[in-house]
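Is this the right way to post structure tokens for a design question? Let me know if I should format differently. Anyway, here goes:
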């Protein structure tokens, strides 16, 4: 493929392509953090890298903007690492292979990293171009946004002086984001009691795949299938008819993505083989009917397990795990009564992991109302503990409440209307971005979030519109040009 810069004629796509060569999954950000730091230093700008690998690059105001307020341009350096199961790709070391199809940039069967690589590309293009008119800038690129927002939690107030924030972490052009939900990660753990496998039994692998997945906040209202929950339903219907012992259960890879695949290895009596086949067929037919519009490629496979098995979950452990998986809250919990169509609270059971001594159920709970978030967490805790499990929470972050008065919102609306001849849509979303945490850390801020069209984020089908990314960059430049007081 020709370079994106040559294809598009835009410098922002040169930077996007360059950062796509650097592995930057959450928790693996040292290389991209150093790259950004060195980029700023080569430009002779003031640069800071803190202990959390956040990078701050400061650029003085252009001529005529010396008295304008300082503006923070903010995004995050990490990306969600998802791929199709058949794709060979090591996110720890392999670069993202970019593919252009018409107006869209895709990756090759992996997530693209447009969320939030486009923010880095925008910021770098502005920092290197001294012809752009702008106030003094503080570019703040945080780490670990996707896995827990620990970068934003670690931001040190004495490094930041700006009070206006342009967050570039939204995925719908023409929509100005002014509020978002808060969230918290939860983990339920069930201890495993292992028993010797009986000679009269046989092992099978159950596989659910072909689901669309999606962002666990913004797409949770679409009613797409959650492979982990569907596996729970499949196992429950099977165990209602025949005796089954689990050998392992795994599904999903990130709790901020709706899981697309799940696998269970089960042990049954040899005499029950036909019943298992019939039950799998029955459940598969029912689910394909139920999800014919939302997940038309849903598939369930039943395969003979060819490896040797010596140990299986005990009857008691199997029952507890299947029941917890079947009952665990998932999906939309409440809908906002103030903003039509906005999910107010939800849960996504994103990851199942079988370890040597226990099995983990990892989820993310989101809510724009703190008390509802705590209610869901308490419910998850009760279900877990009733079944003899251990429940913990971590990585909680606050919501970003709507502000009645906002100068930057008014300016952004005005600029958009003048550029495009129509009003932008003012929205709130059921997803977490760093604005709430930044305000908690830095005090009262005037913030807004926007970005280009990026579709199917957090999935291997993620793709970004080239024309939209170009327009949003021009819009960002015009907003900066208009910030004078």
């Amino acid at each position: 493929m020709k370079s994106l810069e040559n294809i598009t004629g835009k410098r922002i796509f040169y930077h996007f392509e360059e950062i796509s060569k650097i592995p930057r999954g959450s928790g693996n950000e040292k290389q991209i953090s150093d790259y950004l730091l060195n980029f700023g230093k080569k430009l002779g700008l003031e640069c800071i890298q803190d202990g959390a690998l956040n990078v701050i690059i400061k650029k003085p105001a252009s001529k005529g903007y010396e008295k304008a307020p300082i503006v923070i341009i903010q995004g995050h350096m990490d990306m969600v690492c998802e791929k199709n199961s058949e794709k060979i790709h090591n996110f720890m070391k392999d670069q993202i292979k970019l593919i252009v199809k018409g107006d869209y940039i895709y990756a090759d069967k992996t997530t693209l990293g447009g969320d939030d690589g486009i923010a880095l590309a925008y910021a770098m293009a502005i920092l290197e171009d001294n012809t752009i008119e702008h106030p003094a800038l503080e570019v703040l690129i945080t780490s670990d946004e996707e896995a827990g927002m620990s970068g934003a939690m670690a931001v040190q107030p004495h490094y930041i002086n700006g009070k206006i924030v342009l967050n570039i972490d939204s995925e719908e052009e023409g929509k100005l984001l002014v509020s978002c939900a808060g969230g918290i990660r939860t983990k339920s753990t069930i201890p495993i009691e292992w028993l010797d496998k009986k000679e009269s039994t046989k092992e099978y692998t159950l596989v659910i795949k072909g689901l669309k997945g999606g962002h666990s906040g913004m797409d949770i209202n679409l009613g797409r299938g959650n492979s982990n929950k569907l596996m729970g339903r499949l196992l429950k219907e099977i165990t209602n008819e025949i005796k089954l012992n689990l050998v392992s259960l795994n599904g999903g890879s990130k709790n901020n993505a709706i899981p697309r695949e799940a696998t269970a290895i089960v042990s049954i009596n040899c005499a029950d083989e036909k019943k298992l086949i019939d039950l799998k067929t029955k459940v598969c037919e029912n689910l394909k009917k139920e999800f014919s519009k939302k997940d038309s490629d849903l598939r369930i496979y039943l395969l003979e397990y060819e490896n040797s098995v010596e140990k299986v979950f005990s009857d008691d452990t199997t029952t507890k795990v299947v029941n917890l998986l079947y009952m665990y809250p998932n999906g939309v919990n409440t809908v906002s009564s103030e903003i039509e169509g906005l999910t107010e609270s939800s849960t996504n059971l994103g990851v199942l992991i079988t370890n040597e001594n226990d099995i983990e159920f990892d989820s993310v709970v989101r809510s724009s109302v703190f008390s509802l978030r705590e209610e869901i967490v308490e419910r998850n805790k009760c279900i877990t503990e009733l079944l003899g499990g251990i429940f913990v929470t971590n990585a909680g972050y606050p919501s970003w409440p709507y502000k009645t008065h906002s100068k930057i919102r008014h300016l952004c609306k005005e600029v958009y209307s003048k550029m495009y001849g129509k009003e932008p849509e003012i929205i709130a979303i059921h997803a977490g971005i760093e604005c709430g945490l930044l305000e908690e850390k830095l005090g009262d801020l005037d913030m807004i979030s926007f970005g280009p069209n990026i579709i199917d984020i957090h999935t291997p089908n993620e793709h970004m519109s080239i024309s939209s990314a170009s327009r949003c960059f021009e819009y960002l430049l015009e907003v900066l040009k208009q910030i004078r007081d």
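Format looks fine. Someone answered above. Worth noting: The chain is about 30% helix and 30% strand. The chain has a mean pLDDT of 96.
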